[in-house]
Specification:
The protein is α/β, with parallel strands linked by helices. It has a domain of 90 residues: 2-Layer Sandwich (Nucleotidyltransferase, domain 5). It is built from 3 helices and 5 strands, in the order αβββαβαβ.
């Protein structure tokens, strides 16, 4: 006498739970990939206690001459001003052999932010890091 089972095991597999998991993973990776590489300049803002992990290789100072409303750029504290048109070449030449190319920006309080951003754009084009120098409190 043969014993027959009343219920048979089905060979079908439900993919609905698998597609839900894949969909959630897709959303997660899309959201996190936009957070990993934001479209912003790399900017290291030191605290007032001057504890910065990166040591600048070069310093660029922006001086505002309020009497004539002009700006002069000085590399490494040199008294002779450098024109902005040749500043990128000088910075790139100074930092070409640096292991971690970093330069700091020293700007007068009266310097407009667009002049500082122009220097940050030089750093972004050449993949340099920037430290914006502040005075200690």
């Amino acid at each position: 006498m043969a014993i027959k089972r009343r219920t048979k095991a089905e060979a079908a597999f439900s993919m609905s739970s698998m597609t839900d998991i894949v969909f959630l993973l897709l959303i997660f990776f899309l959201v996190t990939s936009t957070l990993v590489n934001p479209n912003a300049l790399k900017l290291l803002l030191p605290k007032s206690s001057n504890q910065v992990s990166a040591k600048p290789t070069l310093s660029v100072s922006i001086k505002h001459h309020t009497d004539s409303n002009t700006f002069s750029y000085h590399v490494n504290g040199d008294e002779n001003p450098v024109p902005f048109s040749s500043l990128e070449a000088i910075i790139a030449d100074e930092l070409k052999d640096a292991e971690d190319p970093t330069f700091s920006i020293y700007a007068d309080r009266t310097v407009p932010i667009e002049k500082v951003v122009d220097l940050m754009n030089i750093a972004k084009r050449n993949k340099f890091k920037v430290i914006l120098a502040t005075s200690p409190e």
